[in-house]
Amino acid sequence: MPIQVYKRTTAGRRNASVHLREEVTTDTPEKNLLRTLKKTGGRNHSGKITARRRGGGHKRRYRVIDFKRNRDDGPAEVLTIEYDPNRTCNIALVQYEDGEKRYVLAPLGLKVGRTIRSGDEAEPRVGNCLPLSNIPMGLDLHNIELTPGRGGQLVRTAGGTARLVAKEANKATLQLPSGEMRIVHARCRATIGQLGNLEHMSVRLGKAGRKRHLGRRPHVRGSAMNPVDHPMGGGEGRRAGGRHPSSPTGKPAKGGKTRRKRKASNKLILRRRKTKRGGQTVL
Q: Rounded to the nearest 5°, which phi and psi values hold at 244?
């Protein structure tokens, strides 16, 4: 998807770019698949801010996405490719033979007028959803289930793709975009293809206002604050604050491991992703 770079006519336009969204075929979503979406502003049920720097932003309506892909009774025709403000990849509106319409994640190369299928009898083509046991090794996958029948939970972002590298009995080994090697049940379903909107990460917002439209409030460095406001604040001149990086409440922010040591799914991870916290770990 091409990206248009603005001319430097103003300070806000300098270094800014925007999607042309040539893949999107309509700006009108399906009304029956829309739900209201209430903003939390980063606050929990008691009104306390638990996620900082959230709030404001443009009003959105949630598009109900079919992550389970459990309609195995026939093909579905792709009607439109649409923009979804709630995710980075595009979505496709499909219609089944009985007239039911659903939204699915739009993989790269899916065009209007194509037909997609789900189930054991589906062919391993782009947009089709079938169990991992029926998928040839080496294909690109997205929207992968962790538990059979629960719906896709892995690889749902723009440009995301995983690869099926091994199958043995009722287990399948996947290589995820992060580099992690993970075992899932062979009856878990996955959709063929790589998700579209590959240039999403190449867009430069250019000004603070576009970030506010996304619901992100200003982010002030702790070392730029006063000692009364942050543990790393204060000091004459620029300095690290005299301690390890931490949150305003004093909790260490970098270098600590956040995954539970006795998490049940540890045995299903053959190789951990590469991180700055602890490097690559083989379990």
A: -70, 155
Separation CA 263–CA 249 (nearest Å): 27
Domains delineated in the chain: 22-200 (2.40.50.140)
86 to 57, 98, 209, 266, 274: CA distances (angstroms): 12, 28, 18, 30, 27
Q: Virtual CA dihedral for 127, 183, 188, 125, nearest 10 degrees?
A: 20
CA separation, residue 125 to residues 117, 136, 171, 195, 210 (Å): 9, 11, 22, 14, 38
Contact 272, 185 (CB under 8 A): no
Task: Determine the straight-line distance between the first and last CA of the chain, rounded to whole angstroms.
Answer: 39
- Residue 282 pLDDT grade (very low, low, confident, very high; cuts 50, 70, 90): very low
Beta-carbon count within 10 A of 251 CB: 9
- Cβ within 8 Å of residue 80, ≥6 positions away: 25, 26, 92, 93, 112
pLDDT greater than 90 at residue 79? yes
Range from 49-53, 243-247, 265-269 carrying the lowest mean pLDDT: 243-247
* Rounded CA separation 271/200 (Å): 28
**Each residue of 217-245: pLDDT tens digit?**
999 998 889 989 998 888 887 776 678 88
